[in-house]
């Protein structure tokens, strides 16, 4: 089970750090991923730690967001800097065993959180 926290409202240029607490240990053989979704649009993969914790980012957040994981393997983070109004969305975390690839879609993950809202005003 995954539980997100850390969402909120900020002005453009501000920062937030999202957390995703896991009820079980997710080691290096797991895909740990952040998604986001705006009402009426498809859920978008934002950042992912894929097999041995290789970080992968969407072009829209590269250079601004950083994904990381604590040493205990129980909490996933998303540090979001220089937030812009287009980053406004519900953010979700997800985890899946890494079998040479990570699922592309949120629905392909076995463990999924309920989301935390991020709102960025201009």
Which helices and strands appear, and what pairs or packs with what?
Layout: E1 2-5, E2 8-11, E3 16-22, E4 30-37, E5 44-50, E6 54-57, E7 65-69, E8 75-80, E9 89-97, E10 111-112, E11 116-121
Parallel strand pairs: 2-11
Antiparallel strand pairs: 1-3, 3-8, 4-5, 4-9, 5-6, 7-8, 9-10, 9-11
From the alpha carbons, calculate the radius of gyration and give it in angstroms: 13 Å
Percent strand:
over 45%
Give the distance, in angstroms, between the N- and C-terminal Cα atoms: 34 Å
Number of helices: 0
- Silhouette: globular
Which spans have pLDDT < 50 for at least 5 consecutive residues?
none
Work out the helicity level: under 10%
Oligomer state of the chains in this structure: single chain
Provide the residue-averaged pLDDT. Answer: 93
Q: What is the string of helix and strand elements?
A: EEEEEEEEEEE
- The assigned structural class equals mainly beta
Q: Describe the biggest sheet? A: 7 strands, mixed
Walk me through what this model shows.
This protein has 122 residues and is mainly beta. The chain has strands spanning 2-5, 8-11, 16-22, 30-37, 44-50, 54-57, 65-69, 75-80, 89-97, 111-112, 116-121. The strands form two sheets. Strands 2, 4, 5, 6, 9, 10 and 11 form a seven-stranded mixed beta sheet that branches. Strands 1-3-8-7 form a four-stranded antiparallel beta sheet, with no helix packed on it. Strand 4 and strand 5 (44-50) form a beta hairpin. The model has no long low-confidence stretch (mean pLDDT 93).
